[in-house]
Amino acid sequence: MTPLEIGYLMVAGVIVLLALGIPVALSLLAVGASGLFAIRGVRGTEFLLESLPYTSVANLALIVIPLFILMGHFAFSAGLSEKAYKAAKAWVGHIAGGLPIATVFACAGFATVCGSSVATAATISKVTVPEMLRAGYNQRLAAGPVAIAGALGILIPPSGILVIYSIATNVSVSDLFIGALIPGILTAIVYAFGIYFMVRRDPELVKRTRIPKASWGERAKATAAAWEVVVLFLVVIGCIYTGVATATEAAGIGAALALVFALLRKGQKGTIWKGLVETGSSTASIFLLMIASAVFSVALGTTQLPTVLAEAVTGLNLSPAVLLLLLIVPYLILGCLIDGISMIFITMPVVFPIIEAAGIHPVLFGIFVTKLVEVGAVTPPVGINVFVVQGSVPGLKLGEIFRGVIPFILMELGLIGLMIAFPQIVTGVL
Asked: How far from chain centre, in Å, is Cα 38?
């Protein structure tokens, strides 16, 4: 059997194991080790398996992962999600669809200090969904926006998914954060306009859900109360954008600052400890995926399959736009079945060489993949954000939440098409 044939068998093997419900890390590790054994024999496989698990994670720069996760937990403990919502509500709560729109902007605000889709959806939904239901919004309009807007946590810097993409592809995380800022803001604005026009179609709903307009004094007070969100965002992202600190250093500064904010809030010691434990657990899971992905990538690279596929795609003379459009379908299917981190580690060894050969900017592709991960976060059967929102607010029906996110999925696909047509939205600021 030729190495190339072994490569095809490896890809098929991963698909079969995932279909059988085997965890992603174990699937990649088992197939990668088997591929190495088939190509290099016992001694070569033994040598690589002795060194790869250490070398794939023994990098000081990887400390950015637990630090950004920790910053998100401390930001939650400090009550920043609630403060972001109250500030957004003071400014836009009185317009048609004001509360769902405020929820979108609150998610965007909290995303600037969190970096996690699940954490953003969970924390914001507890604050906003009950209030929207009391105000007269149906479950679709109350829960749908927070489920999809929670996904902004993986797009707006500091984004955990972009950090993972950076690790998987060796693309600068600072460039990814810079490239993600405009798409993140644009996404929040499109969601807000979408909600406004959806609500405006039902005059009775507009009348029933309208709340009094906040005075300028109330707006100023609510905005001032959210000062920690602004400070944390400016310190972390400002340090990265200006070059004062690397992403790793900025993550450390942000985690320390968020801890101070959490300690200033009474009764949060238990929450802080829980955040430390969950950070350790999440980091261990990610590192196991990284080790498994490294073994799989080395084995697949040995078969020359990525190189052969890249040359084949280059030979088709597809434009970058057409290639990206063709990649939407497989990524949408994967997003329905596995989480975003796993999706990146599984696909990058095969897809990224093709992207490089086609001349597609790696930062543009990173934002492209992140947007599709956003869609996957609300698409059944996995749709983790939908389940998180349902679990955070008792009484919500799963079907209603899934129906509520459908218009936003269409908006997401439209935004992805816009980025493909005008890549300067991402690359113009680099």
From this structure: 36
- What type of residue is 237? I
Q: From CA 252, how far away is CA 63, in angstroms rounded?
A: 9
Burial 252-279 (b: 16+ CB within 10 A, else e): bbbbebbbebbeeeeebeebbeebeeeb
In a structure prediction context, what are the per-residue pLDDT tens digits for the chain, which is 430 residues long?
Answer: 899 999 999 999 999 998 898 998 999 999 999 999 999 999 989 988 988 889 888 888 889 999 998 998 899 888 898 999 999 999 999 999 999 999 999 999 999 888 788 889 988 999 899 999 999 999 999 999 999 998 888 899 988 899 999 999 999 999 999 999 999 999 999 999 999 999 998 888 888 888 899 999 999 999 999 999 999 999 998 998 888 998 889 999 999 999 999 888 876 677 788 888 989 998 999 999 999 999 999 999 999 999 898 888 878 889 999 999 999 999 998 888 888 898 999 999 999 999 999 999 999 999 999 999 999 989 887 788 999 999 999 999 999 999 999 999 999 999 999 999 999 999 998 8
Separation in Å, CA 248 to CA 139, 157, 168, 255:
40, 13, 16, 11
- Residue 134 backbone zone (phi > 0: left; psi -120 to 50: alpha; other: beta): alpha
Token duo for residue 165: 């993409």
Backbone angles phi and psi of 83, in degrees to 5: -65, -40
Tokens matching residue 115: 């970096």
Q: Which residue has the tokens 């590192």?
A: 287
Name the residue with tokens 């939908």.
386
Sign of the CA dihedral with 181 first, then 187, 190, and 195 last: negative
Q: How far is CA 13 from the centre of its chain?
A: 27
On whether the pTM is more than 0.85, the answer is yes
